[in-house]
């Protein structure tokens, strides 16, 4: 099985051109993530499983040449000085575009500073929203006139893909009349091939075009946006800016890294100092309209499918949350998710009943969910 993903002819030295050939080969094998590291074989993630795809372990110089090709001549020096780099990479082969999200990080190698490069495959154009497996209730509540929509999950759970599909869907509608401003790190999906009968989109990359996400949101408020997309609400200044943009009447779509809907809300509250949390909790209750958490899990056929939980924050739920405090908010949200939202175990059970996932996989994730909500 491993040999099915080995290159038929492997070069004695991987030049940037040979790396491009490897990327095209791994694209044909449906690799989602590729890891290139000093002193290691090239590793590919194919349907959630890791495979070594080169016989030979790569030298430090090969990896250094690659990152200088991707990022620029001083990339190796920057990484070895303790700065990790996030960027994107694109190549054209056979008339087809191949795009990747790239992280470059220093690591230990034979007592010295080595390099690990992680490339995540991204599609140039976002997939259609109908392919995102959204149930009707969620689909109907994802277009908000103002407020915050939060999409959460771990790295590689499809957050950016869902966001891009939503944006593309807005752009396609003749009645939208939206100026869409996005702030991403890096830009993953582009919308050049999306028909935009009444809307326009401007994409900015952090830190290439603007220094931070928070600076991006402040920039957006000076440009009369119809919709703001923030790649990640990763810190207090960004979340403060997201709240400010929402309170001034703008729809804001963003992501957070979390372990569930309840954890998403808790993490946002906890970005603030203890003395601020109660006031900021009320701001979040006022502005957050929808929270989605999702993950990709293996199917019976060897592919992956999305499992998802979500909470649509109605006026009734807002009233209940306003009576909470930063200390008891977590327990209340757990109850609300079970009573009024879509908890994860329901989606898992549905996928099992439809024969999409195995009983073993369902038990594993349902058990994790029950542990989380207890």
TrEMBL record:
- Signal sequence segment: none
Q: What would be one Pfam family of this protein?
A: T2SSE
- Which residues are in the Bacterial type II secretion system protein E domain? 29-301
The entry's family comment says:
Belongs to the GSP E family.
Give the protein name, as stated in the record: ATPase
- The organism named in the record is Piscirickettsia litoralis
